[in-house]
Each structure stands twice: as C-alpha cells, then as structure tokens.
Design goal:
Elements: H1 3-17, H2 25-37, H3 41-53, H4 61-73, H5 78-89, H6 93-105, H7 109-121, H8 129-141, H9 145-157, H10 165-176, H11 181-190, H12 198-203, H13 206-215, H14 219-231, H15 237-249, H16 253-265, H17 273-285, H18 289-301, H19 309-321, H20 325-334
C-alpha cells in the first residue's frame, strides 16, 4: 500500500461525504477503484460497499463479496464484518456468524460487537447475556464506539449486568467523543425528566444534544427536534420542518404523523390534504396510534377526501385498541 493510494482513498471518502464541496459519487467511485488497483485493501473493502448497496454502480452482491474476500486475503480484517452483514441481510445467520467469528479472531472490534449481539439475542447460538457483555467490554476496551454503546445499553437496562447509571454515562461520554449519534441522543435524553413541554425542551440543555444527534443521522433525534420545534407555541418551522423531512425520508412513522399535521393545517408548509392523507395513512399503517386517530378524523370530516364514516370508525377502532382515549370517545359519539 503506497502513500498515493492512501491519498486516493482519503479523496474518495471526501468526495463521497461532500467534505470539500458537493457530494460526488462518481468521483468517489473512480478514486476508490484507483486506490484498489494500487493495492489498498481498505479501498477494496469500501469499493465492495458501493456494489453491495448499488451506489454509483448497479447493485451486485456477488461482486461485493468478491471484493470483501480480496480485502480479507490482503489482510484487511474489517471486511469480515461486511461479509457477515451481507449474509445477515440474506438471513443466512450461520454464515454471517462464521465471518464475524473470523473477524473477531483477527481483532476486528465491529465483528466482536456483532458476535455479542448474537449471544444477546440468542441468534444461531444459545442466548448468553454474560458472554454478550464480555464481548461488548472487549470492544469497548478497544475504544470501539459501537461496543461502548451496546455496553451502555446493558448497564441502562440491566442486560447481563446490574443496572449502573454511572457506568452507562461514562460509556456514553466515551462514545460521544467519537460522535456516535446514539450517545448524543441518549445523553440529551438523560437531561430531561420527560414532563417538559415542547418549548421547555427547545430551551433545555438537552436540545443541542438532540440537534447534534440529528445532524449525525439519528432518526429519533430528528423526530424530537422536528416535533418540539414545530409543535410548540413559539414554533420555528424553518428550522424544524427539515428535521421532519429527513426523518420521513428514513421512514419514521412519528415524523410522518407530525408532518401530516403541518400539511393539513398549513403551518410551516403549504396546505396539502393529499400529502397529509398519504403521510398519515403511511404512519397509521406502520402502527402510529396518533396517526390512526387523525386518519379517522380526516375520514369523519372529509378533510381533502370523501367523508366515509365506516372507514373513520375502522381507524378510530385501531387507535382505541392501541390505547388512544380520544379515539375511543369519538367511536362512542359516532354510535
């Protein structure tokens, strides 16, 4: 591996992420291919992800697997992690486990964490929470942020260990220094009691943590930021709507419901009952109780669609079955 191949790989990453300007997938792919040809096996692994996910090329999992194998044979053990993930997506859990085990033996911390998840969930192997914790500790000791997060969750929820808030927070802080989005989100959540209004959340010390987590792609943080910024008395739609739109793109039912409210009311976005109905139905179908109730109201009142009492009752019933008291009252009033 030469210095020039390292430089090509760095430039490929920058182009992919848009660090030096606009994101340029074609440039990233070309630079990655050049680095691979020069014997940079980290670039070989990265090139495999392009083929696995169909980024800039036609999706080709067989080609991706070839590249991951090439990277492994070149001594880049992290490619075992990608191989395991590829087979996991295909629900070939045994083969996935074998690849992660090989990677763990070679010292790849991400493979160690994946093995830990197998033991935690009892997937392929017999469930062993103590072994899962041991593996997470091993990854966390190697300063792997995923290992730190998994171990923090164990201490939060008492999985294989006694609950320990101090240890949980220490691990979250360590993962935060590596900009792990869940660490930012969870540490923000720790700063709230759960009884705050939307306006209070916006003004709280937790809000910068949620915004950072959202910036890093954490869906729950996008939901929180979008909701508290758009639904409070001092709404900031210009700032809040993009959070919701990003979360909707990630298929968040909660964000779809909130954005549906805005589309139906014309707050922060143009009035669009068709879009409100589409978003609300998608969220309701995915199990969001508030969206079920809203959809019932839309059908009852005929908001942007033909009024349909039978369909309204159906959605009210589903919301009521999910514990929504308002929907239960509406059902009673419609009888």
């Amino acid at each position: 591996m030469t210095d020039s191949s390292d430089q090509l790989l760095e430039e490929a990453r920058n182009a992919y992420l848009g660090i030096d300007g606009e994101r340029d997938i074609d440039k990233a792919l070309d630079l990655c291919q050049q680095a691979d040809e020069k014997g940079n096996f980290e670039a070989t692994r990265l090139l495999g992800t392009f083929y696995e996910d169909g980024i800039g090329v036609d999706q080709d999992t067989n080609r991706a697997l070839e590249l991951y194998k090439k990277a492994v044979e070149g001594g880049f053990a992290h490619a075992f992690y990608n191989m395991g993930n590829l087979f996991f997506k295909q629900q070939d859990f045994k083969t996935a486990l074998d690849h992660w085990a090989h990677g763990a033996e070679c010292g790849d911390a991400y493979c160690v964490v994946s093995l830990g998840l197998c033991f935690e969930e009892g997937r392929v192997v017999e469930q062993d929470l103590e072994e899962a914790v041991r593996l997470y500790e091993h990854a966390a000791d190697a300063e792997n942020s995923e290992g730190q997060i998994r171990l923090a969750i164990c201490y939060r929820d008492g999985i294989g260990v006694e609950p320990d808030t101090q240890k949980m927070n220490e691990l979250l802080e360590a993962a935060k220094t590596q900009n792990h989005p869940f660490a930012w989100y969870e540490l923000g959540r720790q700063k709230l009691t759960g009884d705050e209004s939307a306006e209070q959340v916006v003004q709280s010390p937790a809000m910068p943590y949620f915004e950072k987590a959202a910036e890093l792609g954490q869906i729950e943080a996008m939901e929180v930021c979008g909701e508290v910024l758009c639904m409070g008395p001092q709404a900031d739609y210009k700032k809040g709507v993009p959070f919701l739109e990003h979360a909707v793109a990630a298929e968040s039912p909660r964000a779809k419901y909130i954005l549906a409210i805005l589309c139906a009311s014309g707050k922060g976005v143009p009035v669009n009952f068709d879009k409100a109905h589409q978003l609300c139905e998608s969220a309701a179908t995915a199990g969001e109780p508030n969206a079920m109730r809203m959809l019932g109201m839309m059908y009852e009142r005929g908001d942007g669609l033909d009024a349909d009492a039978a369909t309204a009752k159906k959605w009210y019933q589903r919301a009521a079955d999910a514990g929504d008291e308002v929907a239960r009252q509406r059902l009673a009033e419609m009888e």
